[in-house]
Amino acid sequence: MKISARNVLPGTVTEISKGAVNAEVALTLGGGEVVIAIITNASADRLGLQKGMAAFAIIKASDVMVAKGMEKARISARNVLAGEIAELHEGAVNSEVDFRLPGGTVVAASITKESVRALELKPGDAVSAVIKASHVMVGV
Question: What is the pTM for the complete model shown?
């Protein structure tokens, strides 16, 4: 199967916490970074998720926010992945920002050109990828 999501991040299921309807799934990426996904219990069961199994965090680039100066920020998004800008591709309206996490994983974000200007983004900048857990899909 091929999908259009830019971010298909390989990892290992390290935690599964089920509630009444939804499950919180923690995936640890190759570099040790943790991505949290909120999926339905039915989806977790259908996928056969178990601790220790290989899985993918799937995230559309348009669901990734870019932040600078997150050291003291307090936000509700469960996933704040610190890294640096590896590449910046400016378009007429939107731009693609590729982050390299410390473990080497690359995460792509699609943000407006105006946001690139407002944040004064350039390759090498320390930034964070901010992703709501409900925007992370899990694949096996």
Answer: 0.93
